[in-house]
Amino acid sequence: MSKRILLVVTNVDHYETDPSHPTGLWLSELTHAYDVFAERGFEQAIVSPAGGKSPLEPRSLKFPNYDKSAKAWHDDPSRMALLENTASPEKIDAADYEAIYFTGGHAAMFDFPGSKGLQQITREIFEQGGVVGAVCHGYCGLLETSLSDGSYLVAGRNLTGFSWREEVLARVDKIVPYNVEEQIKGRGARYSKGLLPFVSNAVVDGRLVTGQNPGSAKETATKVAALV
């Protein structure tokens, strides 16, 4: 039987702190991972906090983020249809999956942390010996996830994710709802970042795999696949 990976995307299409500012899924963070997993023969499903449509971050559809992988997905109606009708957490049985992979985009800051359904799925996959992966703002989905013993999944573990320096350089530091780098450290995570911003950087700590930024998606997915 093929191994199965659950991909997590957002439902949010604008900054709740600034409704005039659009956001959404950072497309290449999904497509690079999807390509890696497909090449290795994994079955993939897509889930979101509320189910239904996952909107796209407009900036992810512009050069240099709109690369060959993202364009191929965007130009394929069957692939785009996968983002129109994502599963909701209650429709997912964690026992069916060997890994979960959180994609990013600033939208994830708003709807990933509070999703009890995603927290349960993540905990169950991890505790049944599966792999938990996240790239860029995907690690917002790990902020509130606890294990059965009550401890945070990230506590004492090495990880990375979109850094505060990169928020500043992206000129969104004034409108993001919180500093996720500081928040994850507050959960006991051993956060680190690459020497240079926006350069691929992935960290593996046991069955937790995290990538720092959009450019890290392929490396992160490759490291997840190696553990599944």
Textual characterization of the structure:
The protein is of the alpha/beta class. It has a single domain, classed as Rossmann fold, CATH 3.40.50.880. It contains eight helices and ten strands. The strands form three sheets. Strands 4-1-5-6-10-9 form a six-stranded mixed beta sheet, sandwiched between helices. Strands 2-3 form a two-stranded antiparallel ribbon. Strands 7-8 form a two-stranded parallel sheet. Strand 9 and strand 10 form a beta hairpin. Helix 1 runs parallel beside helix 8. The two termini are 13 Å apart. The mean pLDDT is 97.
List keywords for this structure.
Rossmann fold; alpha/beta; 228 residues; single chain; 10 strands
Q: Radius of gyration, rounded?
A: 16 Å
How much of the sequence lies in strands comes to 15-25%
| CATH-scheme architecture | 3-Layer(aba) Sandwich
Would you list the SSEs in sequence order as H and E? EEEHEHHEHHEEHHEEEH
**DSSP summary, beta strand count:** 10
Task: Determine the N-to-C terminus distance.
Answer: 13 Å
The CATH class, by name, is Alpha Beta
* CATH fold category name: Rossmann fold
Q: In this structure, how is the largest beta sheet organized?
A: 6 strands, mixed
Question: What is the count of DSSP helices, taking H or I runs of 4+ residues?
Answer: 8
